[in-house]
Design goal:
Layout (H helix, E strand, L loop, with lengths): L2 E4 L7 H12 L2 E4 L6 H4 L5 E3 L14 E5 L7 H7 L2 E6 L3 H15 L5 E8 L3 H18 L6 E5 L2 H9 L3 H5 L3 H6 L1 H15 L1
Parallel strand pairs: 1-4, 1-5, 2-3, 2-4, 5-6, 6-7
Length: 198
């Protein structure tokens, strides 16, 4: 299995999500974004940059999480076609939601196995309203195509995990206090894993 994390918009948490998924599943992390340093922070031989200067095509392989930057890159379509699922992260602002719908339009013609992840949600009604709005829009635009929408709650632990590229549950280990502090992030990643494997 392999996955793509992609949005045409930057700043929606693609890299944080990609790194967490790759570490959670013990997959290789691959990015086409030369402005990202995550591939350098990954454990040895687990993170790679496939810049357009060096790679005419992006190689496809199993057990890879592809983190595709918020810019147009014609090389990504071939990979999107072959992966098991495409994860489109978004935030709760209307600008991010519009970018999500535009990304979805690009992707759905190539691969219908899509998950929308609403990142950095807070425990309030805004995320629920957003989910309802997206579900209505998806039904109008794509009818019976099943697109799960899941939440990943706001967490400094997830953001910080980018620096050591460690999966949050591993980071907490068996320390009961850490597991308590990290519980939302761990729960959200376990939930995401179930949806990825479904």
């Amino acid at each position: 299995m392999s996955y793509v994390v992609y949005s045409i918009k930057g700043g929606v948490g693609k890299t944080t999500l990609s790194v967490q998924i790759s570490q959670m599943l013990e997959f290789t992390y691959v990015t086409n974004d030369s402005h990202s340093s995550a591939h350098n922070l990954m454990p040895e031989e687990k993170g790679f940059l496939v810049s357009s200067e060096e790679y005419e095509e992006i190689p496809f392989d199993e057990n890879v999480v592809y983190d595709f930057g918020g810019f147009k890159d014609k090389r990504i379509n071939e990979v999107i076609k072959q992966v098991n699922k495409v994860i489109i992260p978004t935030l709760t602002s209307i600008v991010d939601v519009q970018a999500t719908l535009a990304t979805l339009k690009d992707v759905i013609e190539i691969n219908k196995n899509i998950i929308i992840v609403v990142n950095r949600t807070k425990n309030n009604n805004k995320a629920t309203e957003l989910k309802e709005y997206l579900e209505e829009e998806l039904k109008k635009l794509y009818g019976k195509v099943e697109i799960p929408i899941i939440f990943v709650r706001e967490s400094s632990i997830l953001e910080d995990s980018l620096f050591d590229c460690e999966y949050v549950e591993n980071k907490a280990g068996n320390n009961r206090f850490k597991r308590h502090i990290y519980r939302n992030a761990i729960e959200d990643m376990i939930n995401l894993k179930k949806v990825l494997k479904a």
